[in-house]
């Protein structure tokens, strides 16, 4: 029975997931495959490269560096999170990503993006490291209005969360019958309609009507996926981690202390349920 790990996005809320993943790695817990969306992809890749603590470390280190994430970066480059600095300079030079271990680790690693021309999800299995992999991760995490469209392998891509925020059903279809799902919103969260839709319709995204339709319908898709997660959890086929309360951080933050708090909440939740997790995977 293939065992999978499904990681929701949520920008810096994803540090909650990073805390959980680090505890898993410290305990030697491994999976046959991982699928990540947006921040779930950006932080989840470090489980395949077995680099404990890396997502928290580089986010704290570059929290106040305008090249990493800032309105200045958005104005000068078109990307809130600097495409070149955050996705190439950091992993290649400043906090080096272990591509060799990434490629040796047999765990499958998938990212989810959205094709802006069709509005549909693109699921990409990343089987090699380096700049090509970093660009797929960047595409998955490129939020509308905050990022340029990423042109990659003949596709035009943006945030995977627009088309498939919690790709548990996708992993079921890939043969992953038992899954651990990490959400970054509490159990009572219900997504509402995107309030920035009027602004998006006036932006360059107006050239992609199917993508705008996916944005307009995202809350229906997301809430239906939450229900599917509940069904899989009740049936015993999924174990779900979710924060008890809304995480005390916005999509972006320049405060390392806030990042630490969110990461520590993830570690706490993982340690509290560690035996439950091991029993679930072994049963």
Describe this structure in words.
With 283 residues, the chain is an alpha/beta fold. The protein is built from 13 helices and eight strands. Strands 1, 2, 3, 4, 5, 6, 7 and 8 form an eight-stranded mixed β-sheet that branches. A hairpin with a 2-residue loop joins strand 5 and strand 6 (155-159). Helix 3 runs antiparallel to helix 12.
Share of β-strand residues: 15-25%
SS content category: alpha/beta
What is the CA-based Rg, rounded? 18 Å
- Global mean pLDDT: 98
**Principal-axes shape call:** globular
Q: Give the end-to-end Cα distance, rounded to a whole number of Å.
A: 11 Å
How much helical structure, as a percent, in the residues?
Answer: 40-55%
How many H/I helices?
13
Q: Tally the beta strands.
A: 8
Low confidence ranges: none
SSE order: EHEHHHHHEEHEEHEHHHEHH
Largest sheet: 8 strands, mixed
Secondary-structure map:
Layout: E1 2-7, H1 14-26, E2 33-37, H2 39-48, H3 54-61, H4 71-77, H5 83-94, H6 99-104, E3 108-115, E4 121-125, H7 131-140, E5 150-152, E6 155-159, H8 168-173, E7 176-182, H9 197-202, H10 209-216, H11 218-234, E8 238-241, H12 256-272, H13 274-282
Short account of what is shown:
The chain is of the alpha/beta class and 283 residues long. It has 13 helices and eight strands. Strand 5 and strand 6 form a beta hairpin.
